[in-house]
């Protein structure tokens, strides 16, 4: 008799419910990141030094990273005590309201610093909600997966990253193109875009949130969670339990994700800065136009999506650990190959993007199953959420700053940035060698296992 319970929800409902939230998560990230460069310095910060305004805009963007671990603890507590469905509905609703409200905010010119404070508040609310979104979506996918398909189902919440990127950047490009005047400077947003066009992508998020809520409200709790409840295994304080009993898994899970996060933010945030920086600047880049390079990025992100889906069957066949060890070795080599690739002209730059995003799909895809499999049912929401979001601080929050510093140190060459990626991948490789395979672990928790 199989240890894997029969899924309580139809396959289509599970996959859509797990996909929609993470799609909104990454859509939100890229919408804000793009606005933080194009319009927020002018709209939400006082006139003066443009560089200072840009840094202030990015600082507000980074506020969400601070709130994410707090959200992971809060929503993890709810998810492990009340259930995955209720918690996912609350987190999605919180995130959706905050994102929508950003699109309605008054600007600095209208209400002064009140506008800036409201923007910070909305970003904190987004980060707080996102702290509980990923782990809940991953649990919906894996706890409802048929036997032998947890990694395949676990790739669907991961698909939110490439889909969110394409939706956000595609929408921004389309709106900017529609609102640009004939003969206008293509590197500067039009007056109409500054006045109201930038709000459309934020307001559009409401459509996805409504769809997500409709799907999630139709979910029922997985058999894995309900059996844990019936057996009396729900912990009063999941955080205390997971720190006390699964401390090693928390640390390993965090470092499993380290290379993934560093690679992701270098291939997106850093590559956009490096690719569009003019060649005649003090710290030169590749000098592509914004629209041109974003289209190149979108092309690369297509491979991100393809290889995210490919990673599921591979992780089932070879195991999560073996696959990730091989991919992490590939990331190490890739980091040391940056200069020859980007110096080979447009073909080399496109190859650099395609290789980077393909590796991203192969390393990100299995995490949807691997991190939940590290923890028992009673603390799975909390444990996977903390590992995922602490890794976002270590790998994502600091990566853009370190990358820019190394880029400047090397006088515009990305060589040290690639070395930085390789070093982070070595840390992930060591953690994978220490860790154990989780493919054959039964998710269902029993009283005997809980007291072991």
UniProtKB/TrEMBL annotation:
Gene Ontology molecular-function annotations: symporter activity
InterPro entries: MFS (IPR011701), MFS_dom (IPR020846), MFS_trans_sf (IPR036259), Sugar_transporter_CS (IPR005829)
CDD domains reported in the protein's UniProt record: MFS_ShiA_like
Residue ranges crossing the lipid bilayer per the database entry: 29-47, 53-75, 87-105, 159-180, 200-217, 250-270, 290-311, 323-343, 349-374, 386-407, 413-434
Keyword Mitochondrion found: no
Domain Major facilitator superfamily (MFS) profile: 14-439
Pfam annotation, one family: MFS_1
PANTHER family: INNER MEMBRANE METABOLITE TRANSPORT PROTEIN YHJE, SHIKIMATE TRANSPORTER
Name of protein: Putative proline/betaine transporter
Annotated source species: Nocardioides panzhihuensis
Lineage of the organism: Bacteria, Bacillati, Actinomycetota, Actinomycetes, Propionibacteriales
């Amino acid at each position: 008799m199989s240890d894997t319970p029969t899924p309580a929800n139809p396959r289509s409902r599970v996959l859509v419910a797990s996909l929609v939230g993470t799609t909104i998560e990454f859509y939100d990230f890229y919408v804000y990141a793009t606005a933080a460069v194009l319009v927020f310095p002018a709209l939400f910060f006082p006139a003066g030094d443009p560089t200072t305004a840009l840094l202030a805009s990015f600082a507000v963007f980074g506020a969400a990273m601070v709130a994410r671990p707090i959200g992971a603890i809060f929503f993890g507590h709810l998810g492990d005590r009340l259930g995955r469905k209720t918690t996912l509905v609350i987190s999605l609703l919180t995130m959706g309201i905050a994102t929508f409200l950003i699109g309605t905010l008054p600007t600095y010119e209208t209400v002064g610093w009140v506008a800036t404070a409201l923007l910070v508040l909305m970003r904190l609310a987004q980060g707080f909600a996102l702290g509980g979104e990923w782990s809940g979506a991953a649990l919906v996918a894996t706890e409802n997966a048929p036997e032998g398909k947890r990694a395949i189902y676990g790739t669907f919440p991961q698909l939110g990253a490439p889909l969110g990127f394409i939706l956000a950047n595609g929408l921004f490009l389309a709106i900017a193109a529609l609102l640009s005047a004939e003969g206008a400077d293509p590197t500067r947003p039009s007056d109409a875009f500054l006045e109201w066009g930038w709000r459309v992508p934020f307001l559009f998020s409401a459509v996805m949130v409504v769809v997500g809520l409709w799907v999630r409200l139709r979910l029922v709790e997985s058999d894995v969670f309900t059996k844990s409840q019936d057996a009396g295994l729900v912990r009063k304080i999941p955080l205390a339990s997971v720190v006390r009993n699964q401390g090693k898994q928390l640390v390993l899970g965090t470092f499993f994700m380290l290379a993934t996060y560093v690679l992701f933010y270098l291939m997106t945030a850093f590559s956009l800065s490096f690719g569009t920086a003019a060649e005649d600047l003090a710290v030169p880049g590749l000098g592509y136009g914004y629209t041109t390079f974003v289209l190149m990025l979108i092309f690369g992100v297509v491979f991100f999506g393809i290889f995210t889906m490919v990673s599921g069957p591979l992780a089932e066949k070879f195991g999560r650990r073996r696959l990730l060890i091989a991919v992490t070795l590939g990331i190490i080599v890739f980091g040391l190959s940056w200069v020859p690739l980007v110096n080979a002209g447009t073909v080399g730059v496109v190859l650099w993007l395609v290789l980077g995003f393909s590796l991203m799909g192969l390393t990100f895809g299995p995490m949807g199953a691997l991190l939940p499999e590290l923890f028992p049912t009673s603390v799975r929401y909390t444990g996977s959420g903390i590992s995922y979001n602490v890794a976002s601080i270590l790998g994502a929050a600091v990566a853009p700053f370190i990358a820019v510093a190394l880029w400047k140190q090397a006088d515009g060459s990305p060589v040290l940035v690639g070395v930085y990626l390789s070093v982070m991948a070595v840390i992930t490789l060591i953690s994978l060698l220490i860790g154990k395979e989780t493919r054959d672990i039964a998710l269902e928790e029993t009283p005997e296992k809980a007291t072991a």
